[in-house]
Amino acid sequence: MGNRITDLFGIEYPLIQAGMVWASGWRLASAVSNAGGLGVLGAGSMYPEVLRKHIGKCKLATNKPFAVNVPMLYPDIDRLMDIIVDLGVKIVFTSAGNPKTWTSFLKNKGITVVHVVSSVKFAQKAEEAGVDAIVAEGFEAGGHNGRDETTTLTLIPAVKEKISIPLIAAGGIATGRAMLAVMVLGADGVQVGSRFVASDEASSHPLFKQKVVEAGEGATLLTLKELAPVRLIKNKFFHDIQQAYADCASVEELKVLLGRARAKRGMFEGDLEEGELEIGQVAAIIHDIKPAAQIVSDLIKEFTLAKAEVKRL
Questions:
Q1: pLDDT tens series, the chain, 313 aa
Q2: Distances (CA, A) of 268 to 29, 231, 273
Q3: What span, in angstroms and rounded, lies between the C-alpha atoms of 187 and 153?
Q4: Among the listed residues 25, 9, 10, 13, the one whose alpha carbon sits nearest the alpha carbon of residue 296
């Protein structure tokens, strides 16, 4: 399955596991990399020394390439970047900020840089900043998202028209058929998040994993656009947000309601009522928790079968 993405990262399949907060630790990243994809550590929920430990453990668990995702909103980002360089990480995904801030620094250290965007405009800016590839993420995705609510089906061909570097599709992809669909639309590979939350190796709480499996159609909604848009499962905390909107809450009041460590409380500690539960719309078709290697295998098998079916049309 060689193409621009497999060549860029030195991996077997054009399949990237998203670097999700509270889910993407060394166990998940190494398992995906060992299975032929690209595992990604989610540094956004790690203190600098915790990231150091996860990188070290990931190196011991796999001899395959893996990456680190760094949200640019992270307050201690300088320390994270120093650790990444010190420990010889070869691939970094940046998100939630201006790619110009760190791309030159990383590339001067010989690091491959990928930036996550939610619009054509930001894809073009990322290419101008010198990144090696782009993840274009539709608003179906879980976690923090774009305000424009552009779907993956629309976003991928729109971005493809405007950039020349490799393109990775994200948002709503949990099956091999979806992988094939976005690659037909112009993507060189896919980034999968929600499906890997429901894996044995994900570091998220078992109660959250089970909640993802139980989520049906319409179980999530994009909200909190005034702060940082995020797609959440509808639980007590979510309904508290909706009531705040009904009461015409100010941005400051929304910040107070959100508080601190709300995502950790939900996804890592398992508080299904008061915690922030971030997951994509595609949770509606995720029905089990299984090993990451099996998820990779299932995706590639279904992709291959679907590709053969399309050829017969």
A1: 779 999 999 999 999 999 999 999 999 999 999 999 999 999 999 999 999 999 999 999 999 999 999 998 888 899 999 999 999 999 999 998 899 999 999 999 999 999 999 999 999 999 999 999 999 999 999 987 788 899 999 999 999 999 999 999 999 999 999 999 999 999 999 999 999 999 999 999 999 999 999 999 999 999 998 888 899 999 999 999 999 999 999 999 999 999 888 999 999 999 999 999 999 999 999 999 999 999 999 999 999 999 999 888 7
A2: 17, 17, 13
A3: 11
A4: 13
Of 69, 34, 68, the residue nearest 297 (C-alpha): 34
Query: In 10 A of CB 204, how many CB atoms?
Result: 29
Q: How far apart (Å, rounded) are the C-alpha atoms in residues 134 and 114?
A: 5
List Cα–Cα distances, 279 to 68, 125, 166, 271, in angstroms: 20, 27, 26, 15
Tokens of 237: 């905390």
Sequence letter at residue 72 = M
Enter the CATH code of domain 4-203+283-311: 3.20.20.70
For 91, residues 6+ apart whose C-beta sits below 8 A from its C-beta are 9, 38, 65, 66, 67, 68, 111, 112, 114
Sequence ranges of the domains in the chain: 4-203+283-311, 216-282
* Encoded tokens for 229: 């848009």
Which ranges in the chain belong to alpha helices (H)? 4-9, 26-34, 48-61, 77-86, 103-107, 120-129, 152-162, 176-184, 194-197, 206-214, 236-246, 251-258, 262-263, 292-311
CA 95 to chain CA centroid, nearest Å: 9
Class of residue 250 by CB neighbours under 10 A (exposed 0-12, middle 13-18, buried 19+): exposed
Cβ-in-10-Å burial (0-12, 13-18, 19+) of 277 comes to: buried
Q: How many residues are given for the chain?
A: 313
Quick one: tokens of 116? 């996550």
